[in-house]
């Protein structure tokens, strides 16, 4: 059975890994590659490295940082997000070590380029991301302008055309706190069916367990919580206590099997 | 016992650091090369793959590695394809239109039947009783694909379920293929690479 995933997130700003709170406060904590190395060692299901200052500053992807991460020779699948706006950016990110790339700003401002990325790399390598808010119906945040907008037709179109394979829904207002999303809000979403990765405020394993039970949820992504405590990833997985996820395992240790 | 040398076929797709790292961890020497002289000196050939089938086949043709790999299979050299690398071994693919493959394994590459994508960790069900994959039965591996090999049933050595069965591994003599990414499957992947490469090298 395909397992639901727990994605470890490393947020990078100005080249440094940071803890993020509400999309506007950031606390530097160290080198991104050190955090990535920890998640790899702890047997994370997937690692998402997101460079959050790149699109806003029109700086393109942080290839130097990605190259350093790529050289680690990770045993864990790696997703890169941040500043990817062209097919060349996406291809270069894969060449440097990302298994998949995640696009947000480009979905709305370089839609044709996202289609080209998908044609070249395969849609399974392309993830869309969107900060959302349910307070007045489903709305999305344009984080470059910091303005909320109607969700619009662009993302539903890319899902229908199978340009993107998964969608990250970010509860941006509760990033660094407790999510206000409920499983009921996902059922139904006013968008075509697509596997969802939920991010933003999933600090409570029992909340995560409830969301895993929703058929549309393929993964939950957690950032801040995994940055301070040694082996925090495995402890969180154990507390989720769900057969829907792969058992917690250290890299190098024996894993549980499914028969 | 001498350490085996794995020739990692470099045709310009993707980052091969993780594959190299996993092979080293599994106890092999690694030569990363697109040059036939270097690959000739290796014990086992490994064909990786990232991206779409047509562009990968074009790169193999442009570099002449398509001919090299077909000849390697004809002369019974051990060959392992990973993910798209396994699909490239097939006769044809229907990803983004129709493309001819290397034709080393019977079968065609077609879209997944039960789901548009198969992304994440899934367990392996070994279907060959004497398979080198037997010790990996029930272990979880990382999959990331939307097309799969529809080949000769006697070559299928393992399946996974999404929920219908999908070919996860194939074996025909000294040719083997894995639909998942062992290099991204942590301890289970390293262990499987060690066993399988030893097995095809000594078959």
UniProtKB/TrEMBL annotation, chain A:
<dbReference type="InterPro" id="IPR006062">
    <property type="entry name" value="His_biosynth"/>
</dbReference>
<dbReference type="Pfam" id="PF00977">
    <property type="entry name" value="His_biosynth"/>
</dbReference>
<protein>
    <recommendedName>
        <fullName>Imidazole glycerol phosphate synthase subunit HisF</fullName>
    </recommendedName>
</protein>
<comment type="similarity">
    <text>Belongs to the HisA/HisF family.</text>
</comment>
<comment type="pathway">
    <text>Amino-acid biosynthesis.</text>
</comment>
<dbReference type="InterPro" id="IPR013785">
    <property type="entry name" value="Aldolase_TIM"/>
</dbReference>
<dbReference type="GO" id="GO:0000105">
    <property type="term" value="P:L-histidine biosynthetic process"/>
</dbReference>
<dbReference type="InterPro" id="IPR011060">
    <property type="entry name" value="RibuloseP-bd_barrel"/>
</dbReference>
<keyword id="KW-0368">Histidine biosynthesis</keyword>
<keyword id="KW-0028">Amino-acid biosynthesis</keyword>
TrEMBL record, chain B:
<protein>
    <recommendedName>
        <fullName>Imidazole glycerol phosphate synthase subunit HisH</fullName>
        <ecNumber>4.3.2.10</ecNumber>
        <ecNumber>3.5.1.2</ecNumber>
    </recommendedName>
</protein>
<keyword id="KW-0963">Cytoplasm</keyword>
<comment type="function">
    <text>IGPS catalyzes the conversion of PRFAR and glutamine to IGP, AICAR and glutamate. The HisH subunit catalyzes the hydrolysis of glutamine to glutamate and ammonia as part of the synthesis of IGP and AICAR. The resulting ammonia molecule is channeled to the active site of HisF.</text>
</comment>
<dbReference type="GO" id="GO:0005737">
    <property type="term" value="C:cytoplasm"/>
</dbReference>
<keyword id="KW-0315">Glutamine amidotransferase</keyword>
<keyword id="KW-0028">Amino-acid biosynthesis</keyword>
<feature type="domain" description="Glutamine amidotransferase">
    <location>
        <begin position="8"/>
        <end position="193"/>
    </location>
</feature>
<comment type="subunit">
    <text>Heterodimer of HisH and HisF.</text>
</comment>
<feature type="active site">
    <location>
        <position position="183"/>
    </location>
</feature>
<dbReference type="InterPro" id="IPR017926">
    <property type="entry name" value="GATASE"/>
</dbReference>
<dbReference type="Pfam" id="PF00117">
    <property type="entry name" value="GATase"/>
</dbReference>
<dbReference type="InterPro" id="IPR029062">
    <property type="entry name" value="Class_I_gatase-like"/>
</dbReference>
<feature type="active site">
    <location>
        <position position="181"/>
    </location>
</feature>
<dbReference type="GO" id="GO:0000107">
    <property type="term" value="F:imidazoleglycerol-phosphate synthase activity"/>
</dbReference>
<dbReference type="GO" id="GO:0000105">
    <property type="term" value="P:L-histidine biosynthetic process"/>
</dbReference>
<keyword id="KW-0368">Histidine biosynthesis</keyword>
<keyword id="KW-0456">Lyase</keyword>
<keyword id="KW-0378">Hydrolase</keyword>
<dbReference type="GO" id="GO:0004359">
    <property type="term" value="F:glutaminase activity"/>
</dbReference>
<dbReference type="GO" id="GO:0016829">
    <property type="term" value="F:lyase activity"/>
</dbReference>
<comment type="pathway">
    <text>Amino-acid biosynthesis; L-histidine biosynthesis; L-histidine from 5-phospho-alpha-D-ribose 1-diphosphate: step 5/9.</text>
</comment>
<dbReference type="InterPro" id="IPR010139">
    <property type="entry name" value="Imidazole-glycPsynth_HisH"/>
</dbReference>
């Amino acid at each position: 059975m395909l397992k639901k995933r727990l994605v470890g997130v490393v947020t990078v700003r100005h080249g440094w890994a940071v803890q993020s709170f509400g999309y506007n406060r950031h606390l530097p904590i160290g080198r991104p590659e050190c955090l990535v190395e920890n998640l790899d060692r702890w047997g994370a299901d997937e690692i998402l490295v997101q460079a959050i200052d790149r699109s806003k500053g029109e700086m393109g992807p942080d290839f130097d940082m990605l190259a350093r991460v790529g050289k680690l020779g990770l045993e864990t699948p790696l997703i890169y997000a941040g500043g990817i706006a062209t097919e060349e950016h996406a291809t270069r990110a894969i060449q440097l070590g990302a298994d998949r790339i995640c696009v947000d700003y480009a979905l709305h401002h370089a839609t044709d380029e996202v289609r080209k990325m998908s044609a070249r790399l395969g849609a399974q390598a392309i993830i869309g991301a969107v900060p959302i808010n349910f307070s007045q119906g489903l709305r999305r945040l344009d984080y470059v302008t910091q303005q909320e907008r109607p969700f619009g037709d662009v993302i539903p179109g890319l899902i229908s055309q199978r340009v993107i394979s998964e969608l990250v829904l970010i509860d941006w207002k509760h990033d660094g706190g407790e999510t206000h999303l409920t499983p009921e809000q996902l059922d139904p979403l006013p968008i075509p069916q697509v596997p969802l990765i939920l991010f933003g405020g999933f600090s409570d394993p029992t909340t995560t367990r409830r969301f895993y039970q929703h058929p549309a949820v393929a993964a939950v992504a957690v950032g801040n919580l995994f940055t301070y405590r040694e082996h925090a990833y495995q402890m969180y997985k154990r507390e989720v206590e769900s057969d829907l996820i792969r058992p917690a395992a250290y890299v190098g240790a024996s894993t549980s099997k499914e028969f | 016992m001498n350490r085996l040398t794995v020739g990692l076929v470099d045709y310009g797709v993707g980052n091969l650091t993780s594959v190299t790292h996993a092979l080293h961890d599994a106890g092999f020497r690694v030569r990363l090369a697109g040059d036939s002289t270097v690959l000739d000196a290796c014990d086992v050939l490994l064909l990786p793959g990232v991206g779409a089938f047509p562009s990968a086949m074009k790169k193999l043709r442009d570099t002449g590695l398509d001919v090299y790999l077909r000849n390697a299979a004809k002369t019974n050299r051990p060959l392992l394809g990973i993910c798209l690398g396994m699909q490239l071994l097939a006769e044809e693919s229907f990803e983004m239109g129709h493309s001819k493959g290397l034709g080393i394994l019977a079968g065609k590459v077609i879209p997944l039947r039960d789901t548009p994508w198969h992304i994440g960790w899934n367990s392996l069900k070994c279907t060959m009783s004497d398979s080198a994959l037997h010790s990996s039965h029930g272990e979880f591996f990382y999959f990331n694909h939307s097309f799969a090999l529809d080949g000769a049933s006697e070559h299928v050595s393992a399946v996974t379920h999404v929920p219908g069965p999908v070919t996860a591994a194939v074996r025909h003599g000294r040719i083997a293929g894995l639909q998942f990414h062992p290099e991204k499957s942590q301890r289970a992947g390293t262990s499987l690479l060690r066993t399988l490469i030893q097995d095809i090298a000594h078959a």
